[in-house]
Amino acid sequence: MAKTKQIEVQGSVINLSIAKDSDYICITDMANAKDGSGRAADIIKNWIRTRTTLEFLGTWEQLYNPDFKVVEFDHFKMEAGLPSFVLSPSKWVETTNAKGIYTKKGKYGGTYAHKDIAFEFGSAISPVFKLFLIKEFQRLKDDENERLNLEWNLQRTLSKINYKIHTDAIKENIVPNLISKSQINFVYANEADLLNVALFGITAKQWKVENPSSKGNMRDEASIEQLVVLSNMESINALLIEQGLTQKDRLVQLNKVAIMQMKSLLENESFKKLDN
């Protein structure tokens, strides 16, 4: 959707219609800036009826407008230069299906031309005015590009933030779950698997079955946070054994420790830097 913008050229306001693919400039404003209000329509009609202008417009349309009616254009070109030949922008558009020029009514109304055509019109009314017009138009486009770059950088920043949120959500999944009753009642062959179940929720053998393509074991694939907690759990488990707690009771306690410590590490800013 086109947006109306304005630039000031040698003290005169020129309206622009800025779209994604094409920019149009109000040549009515340009004509008024050159010769004062009231004569713009005549200036545009006198300009568009010349053979030079028609050849320029026709060539532009054939380059960019596949629906341009070439036969009707040739008819206008044959009449160009005759004293009786009169042509207006609206008649040009209606007859040839041109898209390089259009007429707009209401607020910001007037005859608008694609920037290529508007600059050509500028050459006809005043080469000096044309140069100032190009300068101000380019300044506007540079400002737009700067704003778009700022928006692009903002989007990149937001994407990074969203990515961080996503990775944090994944990390939350490595926080151990509360072990089930069946796990509590199960007797593990060694203390290493007791720790594995408390932290990872499965035994080393179960992990291997679920990850047949992995060359290492579950501890080789563990995160740095999990390895830190695992080391702490080994010391705590040794202390619980000395206190005479059963394997079932130790599993419950170790699971609680794993959950608490994993959450603490994942929320620690200093520890996060080690992962980056």
TrEMBL record:
It comes from the Bacteria. Residues 5-140 form the KilA-N domain. It comes from Subsaximicrobium wynnwilliamsii. This is KilA-N domain-containing protein.
